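TEACHING EXERCISE
Course module: macromolecular assemblies
Task: Read the component lines below, then compare them to the predicted structure of the full complex.
Student: A.B.
Group: 4
Components provided:
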Amino acid sequence: MVRTLSLVLALAAAAGAQAADKPTRIPDAALKTANDLRESALKDPAAWDFVEGLTTEIGPRLAASENDAKAREWVAARFKALGFDKVWTEPVTYPKWVRRGEHAEITAPYPHVLSLLALGNSPGTPAGGISAEVVGFDTIDALKAAPEAGVRGRIVYVGPRMHASRDGGDYGRVGSPVRTQGPAIASRKGAVAYLLRSAGTDDNRLPHTGVTDFTGAMPIPAAALASPDADLLENVLKRGKPTTIRLALDCGIEGTYTGANVIGEITGRARPDEHFVMGGHLDSWDPGTGAIDDGAGIAIAAGAAHAIKALPQRPARSIRVVAFANEEAGLFGGKAYAAAHAKEIAKAVLGSESDLGADRIWKITATVTPDARDAIGQIAEAIKPLGVQYDAAESGHGGSDLSAVHAVGMAAVSLHQDATRYFD
Amino acid sequence: MVRTLSLVLALAAAAGAQAADKPTRIPDAALKTANDLRESALKDPAAWDFVEGLTTEIGPRLAASENDAKAREWVAARFKALGFDKVWTEPVTYPKWVRRGEHAEITAPYPHVLSLLALGNSPGTPAGGISAEVVGFDTIDALKAAPEAGVRGRIVYVGPRMHASRDGGDYGRVGSPVRTQGPAIASRKGAVAYLLRSAGTDDNRLPHTGVTDFTGAMPIPAAALASPDADLLENVLKRGKPTTIRLALDCGIEGTYTGANVIGEITGRARPDEHFVMGGHLDSWDPGTGAIDDGAGIAIAAGAAHAIKALPQRPARSIRVVAFANEEAGLFGGKAYAAAHAKEIAKAVLGSESDLGADRIWKITATVTPDARDAIGQIAEAIKPLGVQYDAAESGHGGSDLSAVHAVGMAAVSLHQDATRYFD
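Instructor-supplied answer key:
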């Protein structure tokens, strides 16, 4: 699947980067090149080898960890091996959050050890943990509506369940707000800690972690329960007896760290300073394997660039592949890239990335200037044989890492991957 | 789903226990009762309440653990509350195996922490763990064929992958032999430890544990890797560089423990000493929730008995529901029951249990004396409207716990549940 994804990105990039004078209409020769790419790129194992190598030789890469640093060296070396003309890094500085361990148990009325993971940005508890009564809410809105008196001094639990879908829409509607906004809301009402049902559509005892945001609130320990453990807690709460939890999180922010975006470029033959940007983020959460979020994203972009590099003629414009630093804790790499390149934004012709796993792309959308709409239509035609629809009415911000550079003016194509199984 | 399962068992039990003089042909009145049960039992929440209560108020129940003892009291109390005429326990003694923790990491050529669980019966390692080079095999047959020289002093890894199916056949063909037989085979060739790919069809980082058997071999530390971790180890081994693992297991057998089978009986009106036996096992592995393996089994049987108890007339023969002790480590409860009741085996008319989760029953099979074949055919007719086939050509041993009492002469019906998702 990563090969096919890589191909879609290669077609989009080649078509965009081959464009002649103004990137408003793609010449026939460039479209012919894109069509040829459909054949050659499918045979290129570069994308698969990239993600297999990164996950095997490095593994998960929590931002600011030792593996994060090793991964930057690995990616830079691989970019060179893939034949990029230039490879460089650009510094990215952000708060360093570390996880050392977590433990939680229901202590009354029925003792149970719970499976959970601290959220990124969560402070730790005091060493022995904290114990408090739990108050449960079905939704974030119920928590918002709750009087402070019922929350103060308690551990808040919020437990809506996500449902799987192709557009992964429940993540934005349900999973993400409960995690990103819930802890701050609970904190402002005086809660001592916050637990949520993992943002996920699976039913196993592995929690799904992610970042939370305490802007404007006092940080409180916050963690995600595995879905069966959330079910259990709800069943206990349903019995109506006072329910207490002991929660011990050993984690927190420890100063700042300077990592880097790693950038590889295939230099264009005619207008080398104009470029197409694609990429993914190099960091990953620590409990996973670091493959689908988002090793695959960089691999897909690197594979696409490799296929383009192998063409008889290099593209008119440059192709940049960016392995972004620390997306998970707040798009730090994407923001640093946007800041560093704001002055040359007019030279960034188009951008696109993959950050929703490695399943099939079913739709593209784009946000470009009106005069470039035709060119996007042509790109859409070039990838249509791969079963990809084009929704001209919807906007596209390019992907999480690229959203910042898109916000300062870069045109973007969004590749919509099938997310039905992504949150399992 | 547990309600429907309960119903199937109730129909089978009622039809069996209602039989008149000789249980070779079921009278029409009894079949009428069984048909009425189809309506009433579907409305009875007893089975669901049982499993929800056991998992919420007790939780996982590793044999010989504190929760195991609490669960016996819980089940006895629930049996009484459900209106069983008699409730009693029978002692079961077995080796006490304890798990305190496990850790493993690939130390060369690429450092990775691995997610794993020690197998039941595995001894621990010395406190600091053991470090050794890994030798990998695709199948148990490849390990059997390997010369001792390539195994001695090493950690053996065996990694076949199970595929999901309705009959769960890969568990018997692939998953179970690699776990139950592999460690002893590796030990006899001089291996210092044994790792396997979890018996499971999922793709998450939760390992699946189970028991192993060191009969005739020196016990060596043995553990199951989560499936993605097994993939990772295979990818590392594939690179052909010497691969070392440090393995630390804190577990082992600590003397013996005496638990109990918990038995509830609805006493028959005409032939109270003749009885139908159904049940499940009370113990469960510790990392799960203790629901589907096999809290659901006892719940289904208890629910069936409850539905029968609610009939206008009690059955001619008695109905026994047994919550068996320690199935997971070697069918100890089932064997103890068989030994304790061997003398009255002629009074055990028929037995059946559920121990393959809580999904739909799609087939029944039976092993009974030839003159009772007709009666089984009648039971099959009674449950046919629920979509259950009857395969008269195949034998049925009743289920794991009942296999021992079946072996000493009790006729048995096997309820084949859909196992497509059971090993996820």
